[in-house]
Task: inverse folding
């Protein structure tokens, strides 16, 4: 299959799809960090939506849409109009991906703020369902694809919140946001195997 992995500089999902024999491309306005620039399209993804793809897996920015950031909308009880407008633009971008002319679509994001009225998500997954000892709710909006099935559920005593200081997820510095956006390897493998499968 010809697959576009939108807003993915890490190439985590793209690499797993390539391992299975698919013609997969990551796309982001940033250079890729996954080590395969020949599979990376560094450009505005909206232009690529005009092409025909067999599947689109998208990871749009969540800074303004996430429920975790909703508290910044009303500092001191007053609407932050600039942040609200940025949220509306982020929603428009999300919907462009979600409504792409493609038979199989998956859009991934954290739990969204109700303020922006995104469509209902299809399911919520957790890293600990795919072999990673973390709790971090992630929503999937799916079209033409089955729900993602857990591959390695860890017991409760092995799970920890990604909010715990000192773990990779909360590593500081200028790349903090980029690190937080990377797809867990177990989830990336499950997406590739369950939604695309091995090319015969």
Result:
């Amino acid at each position: 299959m010809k697959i576009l992995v939108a807003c993915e500089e890490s190439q985590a999902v793209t690499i797993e799809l390539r391992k299975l024999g698919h013609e997969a491309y990551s796309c982001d306005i940033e250079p890729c960090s996954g080590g395969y620039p020949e599979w990376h399209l560094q450009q505005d993804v909206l232009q690529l939506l005009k092409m025909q793809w067999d599947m689109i897996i998208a990871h749009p920015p969540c800074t303004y849409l996430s429920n975790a950031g909703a508290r910044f909308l009303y500092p001191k009880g007053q609407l932050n109009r600039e942040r609200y407008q940025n949220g509306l633009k982020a929603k428009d971008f999300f919907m462009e991906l979600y409504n792409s002319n493609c038979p199989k679509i998956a859009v991934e994001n954290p739990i969204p703020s109700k303020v922006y009225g995104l469509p209902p998500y299809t399911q919520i997954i957790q890293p600990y369902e795919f072999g990673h000892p973390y709790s971090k709710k992630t929503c999937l909006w799916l079209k033409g694809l089955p729900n993602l099935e857990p591959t390695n559920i860890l017991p409760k005593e092995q799970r920890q919140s990604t909010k715990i200081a000192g773990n990779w997820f909360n590593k500081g510095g200028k790349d903090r946001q980029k690190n937080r956006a990377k797809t867990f390897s177990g989830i990336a493998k499950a997406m590739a195997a369950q939604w695309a499968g091995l090319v015969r």
About this structure: Residues 73 and 79 are 6 Å apart (CA to CA). Strands lie at 2-6, 23-28, 40-42, 55-58, 105-109, 123-125, 134-135, 138-143, 160-161. The longest helix spans residues 81-98.
